Amino acid sequence: VQFLESGGGLVQPGGSLILTCAASGDNFNLYTMTWYRRAPGKECESVATITASGGNTDYADSVKGRFTISRDNVKNWVRLQMISLNSEDTARYYCERTGWNCRGQGTQVTVSS
C-alpha cells in the first residue's frame, strides 16, 4: 500500500489547513494510521493516530484541541484538519501506517506571517 499526501502550503499564524492522504493498494481498512511530522532539525514525531475502524483517535499534546484526524475506508483516505496553526506547526507532514514514521513524499506546511 502507498500513500500520497496533499494539502500543505503557506498559512498565516492562526490559520487553517486540511491535509489529505490518499491510499492506494489493498487492506487500507486494516491499518491504524498516523500523521507524522518532521520540523527542520528535529526528529520525526507522531501528531495524530486513528484506528482501523476510525472509532478511536489519539493526539500529541501539542496539537490536542486544534487538529482532528479522520478517515474514509471506502474512499481510502485519511485527513488531518488543522486550526489555530502556529509557527511550531511548521514541518513536513507524512501519513503512514502506525509505527512506520516519516517516510515518502510528505507535504510541507509552513506557518508564517
Key features?
49% strand, 4-stranded antiparallel sheet, mainly beta, 6-stranded mixed sheet, 113 residues
Along the chain, the helix and strand elements come as EEEEEEEEEE
Count of runs of 4 or more consecutive helical residues: 0
Share of helical residues: under 10%
The structure class reads: mainly beta
Biggest sheet strand order reads 2-10-9-4-5-6
Largest sheet: 6 strands, mixed
Mean pLDDT: 96
* DSSP summary, beta strand count: 10
Strand content: over 45%
Instruction: Determine Rg (CA atoms, Å).
Output: 13 Å
Would you kindly provide a brief summary of this structure?
The protein is mainly beta. It is built from no helices and 10 strands. The strands form 2 sheets. Strands 2-10-9-4-5-6 form a 6-stranded mixed β-sheet, with no helix packed on it.
